[in-house]
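can u do me a favor
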């Protein structure tokens, strides 16, 4: 499946669409408008320092790219932790009342009894009628054709 994502140059604001890069891909390239260097990571376009990336030493380039990606991940992780804390707070707050739940678990057996199980006659009918049809190519043609 081909999917396209909307991207916006963090240098000049130029907008466009690109093919969704493969999962985990880190793609570095220039903006077609301003030729500013960007890195595309997890569907996001992050600005790179063109001077460092083009003229810096290997170690400088590596550190610059790492710091850009790390900052992006740090922001994401911070958001995740924030919303996770909120979720966990909700859970721990609502965890108080249902302390009586183990007593109710005995009645849970009634639920499974009440749940309609497939009658044996249904199973037999399936075995007799449906299974032979699986070999019948016309049967599939009728469904998928
Ligand atoms: Zn640009």
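np, heres the sequence
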């Amino acid at each position: 499946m081909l999917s396209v994502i909307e991207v916006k140059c963090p240098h000049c604001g130029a907008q466009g669409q690109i093919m969704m890069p493969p999962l985990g891909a880190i793609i570095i390239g220039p903006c077609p408008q301003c030729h500013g260097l960007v890195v595309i990571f997890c569907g996001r376009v992050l600005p790179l320092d063109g001077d460092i990336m083009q003229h810096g030493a290997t170690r400088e380039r590596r550190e610059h790219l790492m710091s850009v990606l790390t900052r992006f991940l740090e922001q994401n992780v911070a958001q995740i932790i924030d919303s996770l804390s909120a979720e966990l707070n909700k859970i721990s707050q609502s965890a108080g009342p249902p302390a009586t739940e183990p007593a109710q678990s005995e009645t849970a057996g009634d639920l499974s009894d009440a749940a309609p199980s497939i009658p044996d006659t249904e199973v037999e009918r399936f075995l007799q009628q449906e299974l032979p049809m699986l070999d019948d190519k016309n049967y599939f043609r009728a469904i998928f054709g």
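Residues 9, 11-12, 14, 31, 33-34, 36 surround zinc ion (CB under 6 Å). hope that helps!!
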